[in-house]
Every structure is written in C-alpha cells, then in structure tokens.
C-alpha cells in the first residue's frame, strides 16, 4: 500500500511539474501571439495578465486545499518587482522571437540568482565557475550585434525582466505560504498596473483575441501554473527543480516554430547550448552541497 501511495505521489509531482513548465513556456507563446498580429498593446497585455492572475489566485486561495490560514500575504517590494518583470516581459516581446525571449529571460534569471549567491558570501565550487562563464558567454553571444542578433531594446528589456524575476524569486525564499504570498503580490501590483495603463492611455488597443490571450496568460499560464509549480516543489529538491526549468526556453522555441512559424537560427542554437549547458553545469555543482537540497520557492 505504501509503495502504491508513493507512486501516486510521484505521478502527481511529475504531472504538476510538467503542466507548470508548459505553462511557463506558454506565457512567452501567448504574449508573442497577442503582440505579433497587433491584437493588443504591450501595456494592456500586462494589465490584463496581472489582473486575471490576481483574480485566479484569489479564487484558488478560497478553494480546498489552498484555503488555509496564512500569516503572510506578500509585500509591496515584491509586488513592484513582479510588475517590473511583467511589464518588461510584454514590451520586450514587441521585438523578440518567442524562443530568443525565453532564453534571454531564463539566462538572466539564473545569472541573477548566481550573482546574488556570490554577494551573500557563497563561492563557486568545482564546475560552477566554468558553468557561470559559459552561460554568461552564451548570453553575450546571443545579443552581440550582427545580422541575426535580436533587437537590442528587446534584449535589454527582457534582461531587465529576468533580473526582476530573479530578485522576486530571491524575495520568496523561506516563504511559509508561497501561494498566498503570490496572490498578495499580484493584488498589490494592481496600482502599478493602473499607472502603466494611464501612462499609455493613448496607445491602448485591445481586441477580443488579444484580451483572451492575456487572460489565458494571466489566469491559466501564470495563476494555475504557479499553483501547480508550488505543489510540485513539495516533492523536489532545489537542484532538481532548477534543472527541470532548463526545458522552458526549449519548449517556448518549439512553440514559436509551431504557432508563429518562427525560424530557429544557428545563433540561437549555439547560445541555447552555451546558456543551458552552463547553467546546468553550475547547478550540478551545487547539487553536492547539502545546503541546496531543500525545495525551492520560485518560478522562471
């Protein structure tokens, strides 16, 4: 009976993680789909995404098994960083391809967290330094000027989004109620959303299709995706959770090819190998350290 229960638990964790990772990639695909054909402007996509995410997460907190008392409900700092991530993410996809954007985002998130670890007194061990340099080189190569280089503005915006999400993830370390904190952060981000919408008031353009894609991104890919990711993290070590996220840029790139007819360039392939391989090497080096064997509390 115990073996059967363990199998069910492992299946639940695996299925939750698979859906969550697909949802993270879907955020890039949905945003790119909405902006490519002009169905919605970036500011409105950001606003609808965060509003719908806040609504879904609030509803989840009122439903079993998430309706448990929680002492913390997020913070204004985390909400501000979440907003910066979401806004920069949307505006970056005005000019970036799906896979390229996801790769820059992912690389920036992981590099931000590795740098933060160094600033906190941690030191590279074994292959960590080599992995860090390889990932950094891959990111620099991807955005280096050239015929196939992505937009500089888009690259800078997505790098900023990645840094913001890395900081947001670090803020969530040790959260006793990550879902409640996330719901609180989404809700607190709404005043920033209102300010963004007012600033871009003259550029607002929203069609039914664009609004639907934004709702799917916020309510399903973000809201439900985050909830399932937190469920999956209960049975995953830090190193395993970090490594499985390496699949997100790949899934996003494939989605771009299938749904947006985007072309995968040689530059993107080389950069992907360097960034994901480097991050994987750095994380593998951390895996032997017992301090990193606890579950993590963030998403990419």
Automatic annotation (TrEMBL):
Transmembrane segments: 41-61, 73-93, 99-118, 130-147, 207-229, 241-260, 266-284
Protein name (record): Threonine/homoserine efflux transporter RhtA
Domain named EamA: residues: 153-282
GO cellular component: membrane
Pfam families according to UniProt: EamA (PF00892)
UniProt membrane topology term: Multi-pass membrane protein
Secretion signal, residue range per the UniProt entry: 1-25
Keywords annotated in UniProt: Membrane, Signal, Transmembrane, Transmembrane helix
Organism: Desulfuromonas soudanensis
Higher taxonomy: Bacteria, Pseudomonadati, Thermodesulfobacteriota, Desulfuromonadia, Desulfuromonadales
InterPro entries documented for this protein: AA-Vitamin_Transporters, EamA_dom, EmrE-like
Localization, UniProt: Membrane
Lineage top rank: taxon: Bacteria
